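Exercise (ungraded).
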Amino acid sequence: MPIALPRRTHAMSALTLCAALAGAGQASAQSFNAVASTPLQFKPAVEQAFAQLMAAPAVTRLLDAVKADHERSIEDLRLLTEIEAPPFKEQKRAEAFLARMKALGLTDARIDAEGNVVGLRKGSGNGPKLLISAHLDTVFPSGTDVKVRQDGNRYSAPGISDDTRGLAVLLSWLKVLNELKVQTVGDLLFVGNTGEEELGNLRGIKRIFADHLDIDGMVGLEPAGDGTVLVLGTGSHRYEVTFKGPGGHSFGAFGQVPSAIHGMGRAIAKISDIQTPAVPKTTFTVGTVGGGTSVNTIAPDARMAIDIRSDAMAPLLETEKKILAAIDEAVVEENRRWGVNTLSASVRLIGDRPGGRTQSDQPIVEAASRANAAFGLKTLLSGASTDANVPMSLGIPAIIVSGGGKTGGFHALSEWIDLTDGWRGAQISLVTVLGLVGVQGVSEPLLTKRTPRTK
Amino acid sequence: MPIALPRRTHAMSALTLCAALAGAGQASAQSFNAVASTPLQFKPAVEQAFAQLMAAPAVTRLLDAVKADHERSIEDLRLLTEIEAPPFKEQKRAEAFLARMKALGLTDARIDAEGNVVGLRKGSGNGPKLLISAHLDTVFPSGTDVKVRQDGNRYSAPGISDDTRGLAVLLSWLKVLNELKVQTVGDLLFVGNTGEEELGNLRGIKRIFADHLDIDGMVGLEPAGDGTVLVLGTGSHRYEVTFKGPGGHSFGAFGQVPSAIHGMGRAIAKISDIQTPAVPKTTFTVGTVGGGTSVNTIAPDARMAIDIRSDAMAPLLETEKKILAAIDEAVVEENRRWGVNTLSASVRLIGDRPGGRTQSDQPIVEAASRANAAFGLKTLLSGASTDANVPMSLGIPAIIVSGGGKTGGFHALSEWIDLTDGWRGAQISLVTVLGLVGVQGVSEPLLTKRTPRTK
């Protein structure tokens, strides 16, 4: 799911703050806060493309088909939700998703080396290549009860909205595009990817961008409120730091050995005073600590986990540098305190999410905002940590939008989605996609074709 | 058991250092190190008393009786060892010990409010009152297999040497003194006390000194090497410190809330740099730490355990004061860093052992050393944390000596005692006791009668 990362925290209401804090990073999609003002005017090319799209009978038929496919797509949703997909164990769900992609016409689709399901729906030629994706993995461990419970239009199951709904919408798009033989100008790279959640560290989407150097943009589907467009990808680095020393009796060895806990305390004290910019918002915390053998033992070991985040990579890396330096200095100081050289620290990168931002005046943001407007929705530009972080960090235009439905309970066993009028979200996001790649005979692609990156 | 607290650590051999460190405070008695030089000359009164004692046929008969009672006393040792006595659960063993005391003639013996077994064997009058004690409690929890296994003269069971051997020796002394009708000048307060180990915090012996304001000295029995006399009682205070704050999301709440872990880190950094005197040796360590919810949560809680020790009370209290001040300052600094007042710390005293020292020229030390010499043993004056800490902290002469036997494996399930010639230790310590309280018709008391303390 997009981990909601409210940017203007001083302006947060008590309610949204509570929501943002409730799950320690598992805030509901409804708690997103604005990171830029809503685009109200659009470039002429954007206006022209959407005027053409919304007026084209082929597009109207396509959108009607999305609505008509709604009930059937819920069966895909149920099928995929009930195949558990814990982090690093997405394979069974990937195989089922691949089978559905093939059945719906992407016969060349395959599973790549990182476990992503990848299928290319080619355009008429010489257009941009747009990645459209949803993630396969959930946060739930093996053995979680993933049976879908239905109560009217409300469906409950772990992972059902985050992000299985996105997968089902991709399949529905594929179905209607093929059945109505809609020919886009640009290529659509359909992807169900692995590793979005937690320690997955975006491994799936990183692989996609490593393998496909010619992607020109990305539209990802995630649970988000109507009109929400994520344009900011907060980056994060996480470290586990381990301090090791010889240890010893608190009285007998005093003065002869350093303390792993004292060394760690020195590091934490230094880290506590590191200054970071308010904009781009950059944060750090030592989230957990542990260590020591007993109260009367000079600790031979101590460990801490550090979280560093930023809305931009430069201050993230700058803060990281200061933190790593603080750890080194602390070790030197603790050794010097006792005239020894027996304390050491080792750091291990346990979390690595690049960060970046898609500027509001990019066609991809204007397309999503214009599509919202076409359906009478006000756009909220917000930020989070999602698969889109990867293209954003590469300077490739990327956004995350909703695939429809009201959602909640992310990362909790009570996760749910209310699909009343859920087809609308699938329509709006599909129009956004069509605007970006263009439809043959209707509109030109809004997404700029980029010079392919080099390895 | 006496927790061996080697004082001159810079002079420790690698072997004894290893022994002292091996069990984090559970060093074997054989690892005691000298804290003062061996007394080789004694006051005339001491020489005179021991010359009289060692020449007296009544004392010779008494010591012969100790040897003759050796095999029988092993049955008391077995009986008491096989009654488990975990910390704060000494009652059953206390009742058995009380029954044995009464059977051997101390009919007025009773169990006091702290669970100590207390019996007074009166002297002929107007002499000093000497506390002679061993502790009832072991470190082993309920359910530990305390069955005694015998292999020749070697007996193994948890707690058998620490300190059940001491209890059995007290009973043997009582038996032979009564059977041979030896009349001491001073009073002997026989005590089997509770709460010597760990979180017992010397509660039993503290109660004894609170209830008996007229005690003039103490000889405690504990597993110790031949000739070892503990004259230094290293005091210790232990604290559990808990930091509490509101917590929050590492990104969303950054800048708004303090971190319990950062606050604790600041405290540890300050504590790490506290200076303490080398003499009297004074030490501190933050032995254990824990805290935090997850890597991406600003920690709402953190806790640490601190050990402070000293060979003297003044530097112990001075160091404690600095540590508590460091905690307060750290909380203020962490709150100030974020412009809040929501971090707090609470401290709880979880260990409280007073400290002190019996000077080498005290009659009680000379008596023990002279008794060792009479049996051809060289005295080693050493230090530890034992029941004797309490009288030492009150300025009352106190020592700990061995009741005989070679011992090892303290605080481990493999604990053992080899009682080959174990009666010798019981004889030497009894002669020490007799020298201190005097024997009617043989010697004058060496222990000075003090003005009773007031409540």
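Further reading is listed at the end of the chapter. For now, observe: Residues 5-30 of chain A have pLDDT under 50 and may be disordered. Residues 422 and 432 of chain A are 16 Å apart (CA to CA).
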